[in-house]
Design goal:
Elements (H helix, E strand, L loop, with lengths): L1 H12 L1 H25 L2 H5 L3 H45 L14 H36 L3 E6 L4 E4 L1 H10 L22 H13 L3 E7 L2 E12 L2 E11 L1 H36 L6 H32 L8 E4 H18 L3 E6 L5 E5 L1 H17 L6 E11 L2 E10 L34 H11 L3 E6 L5 E8 L8
Parallel strand pairs: 7-9
Antiparallel strand pairs: 1-2, 1-5, 3-4, 4-5, 6-8, 9-10, 10-12, 11-12
């Protein structure tokens, strides 16, 4: 009984129940009207007055039609109005106004539909808000990334980049590289994928697997990691993460060169020490003069290894920022004169002219380490004397210089020696440059670390050193040191 009562109540509150009740009410009204109007005309009907009966039925039909139309219009408005509100709300939501709600207070299906619609829009509004939050979060992460991130669709069109990726696309837009075969299929023929990335992009799109490679573009090395974007097993694009690894590549090359060069530098003195020591132990040497020569070679090679080790320690301390520097105000004219005087005798022995062109005014520097700068000039002059033949000259210059409105002291060491090939000049300040296959050792006994130490010392003084040289045309080293304290060259 209770179940039947609940079912009837639910039917009564539904649209179907309301339609049924309205129709039943309409039928009852029509029957009542017909009954009221026809009862008093029964006698007329019995007297066969058919005309009046017809008129009566016509009037009854008209009244019934008007009532039915009125109730139908009333019911239609009751149903149509909430549906129109739902339609307008749906249009508003489709235009992006997710806060739209419908105000329909009813207990029938339309009321339930309105409640469901409002709940749906509330959930949709929350979902869109969460998606926008995640989108902004992702955009912030992409903007803050130092790596370049570029996303392509299946046709190779760029659909998403971070600022670094956008700049990289602009830089690579005009790059033309000679790829093997120079053949690309239609997958990338009309794409926006930069030329350096097209081969990797094509492989990722065809194979559907991640790809990693290092590419060389515009004198730089770039690490590229590209992954496919898949949906239901279909590759719909690719995302590339690109990082500039030029410095890492250079450091790795320097590490390998360092190992090779240090092995080369140490192997020779060790071999000589071992060989000559074995000769002395085995009493192979007969005369006392030969024995002294061997001992002298062993002594010279041990000194050379000592200089090599000390050079390593100096560079390591400088690069780690642990070099002991005694900064104070220094007149570089005194340093230049002292170095010139120290090498004057050595230059005469080699029949090389050592000239000094110094200004009469003091060459004052507010913050400088006098001993370290003397070490710089000593290394440069020693290097120049070892590579300048007899009859040539070496010139030391000290003068004032103005760069970008700031005052500097310029030191120049210019020789007329054998020079350095133009292609080797960029590497002249690297460790063991002298051990490079492009150079001949000759009679030089240097360790190959002198110019690297010079470069580090000048950097510690916030200065700059440059070199100009060409084969058989001599070499010129130019040093700029800031006059004021805490001043550096840009």
């Amino acid at each position: 009984m209770e179940l039947w009562h609940r079912s009837f109540g639910k039917l009564w509150r539904s649209v179907v129940g309301k339609l049924w009740a309205t129709i039943m009410l309409l039928v009852v009204v029509v029957l009542l009207i017909v009954g009221v109007f026809l009862l008093q005309y029964v006698d007329i009907w019995l007297e066969d007055n058919s005309h009046q009966v017809k008129v009566l039925f016509v009037l009854t039909a008209i009244i019934g039609f008007l009532l039915s139309t009125f109730f139908a219009f009333f019911l239609s408005k009751k149903i149509q109005q909430p549906l129109l509100q739902l339609k307008d709300a749906a249009v508003s939501i489709s235009q992006g106004n997710y806060s739209t709600r419908v105000n329909i207070v009813s207990s029938d299906e339309i009321g339930e539909l309105a409640d469901t619609f409002n709940h749906m829009t509330e959930q949709l509004d929350k979902l869109i808000h969460d998606l926008n939050h995640e989108k902004n979060h992702l955009a912030s992460i992409l903007r803050s990334m130092g790596d370049s991130v570029i996303t392509f669709d299946a046709a190779g069109k760029v659909i998403l980049t971070n600022p670094s990726g956008h700049l990289l696309i602009n830089q690579w837009s005009g790059v033309e590289l000679a790829w093997q075969g120079e053949i690309f299929d239609t997958l990338t023929s009309n794409s926006e994928v930069p030329m350096p990335l097209r081969e990797i992009f094509q492989n990722v799109m065809l194979e559907g697997h991640d790809a990693t490679d290092n590419i060389h573009v515009l004198s730089s090395v770039w690490s590229v990691v590209m992954a496919p974007l898949q949906s239901n097993g279909i590759v719909r694009g690719a995302v590339a993460v690109i990082r500039n690894v030029t410095e890492e590549h250079k450091l790795e090359k320097m590490r390998k060169d360092f190992v090779a060069n240090i092995s080369h530098e140490i192997r020779t003195p060790l071999s000589m020490l071992q060989g000559y020591s074995e000769a002395l132990l085995d009493d192979i040497v007969v005369s006392e003069e030969e024995r002294k020569d061997l001992v002298q070679v062993i002594y010279d090679e041990s000194l050379r290894m000592g200089r090599l080790v000390n050079g390593f320690l100096d560079i390591a301390r400088m690069e780690a920022g642990h070099a002991d520097m005694n900064f104070q105000e220094v007149d570089l004219r005194h340093v230049l004169k002292r170095v010139h005087r120290k090498f004057q005798v050595y230059a005469k022995e080699r029949e090389v002219k050592l000239l000094a062109e110094l200004t009469r005014d003091p060459l004052m520097v507010k913050e400088a380490d006098e001993d370290r700068l003397e070490q710089v000039l000593t290394n440069l002059l020693d290097n120049a004397l070892r590579h300048t033949p007899s009859g040539k000259s070496i010139t030391i210059v000290g003068r004032h210089e103005v760069v970008n409105g700031s005052k500097y002291v310029q030191l120049i060491v210019r020789d007329e020696g054998q020079g350095v090939p133009a292609e080797d000049v960029p590497y002249i300040f690297e460790r063991f440059y002298k051990a490079d296959k492009a150079r001949k050792r000759g009679s030089s006994s240097g360790t190959g670390l002198g110019l690297a130490i010079v470069k580090n010392l000048i950097d510690l003084h916030h200065g700059r050193i440059s070199v100009e040289s060409s084969k058989s045309m001599g070499t010129t080293f130019t040093i700029l040191l800031p006059v004021e304290a805490h001043q550096s060259l840009s």
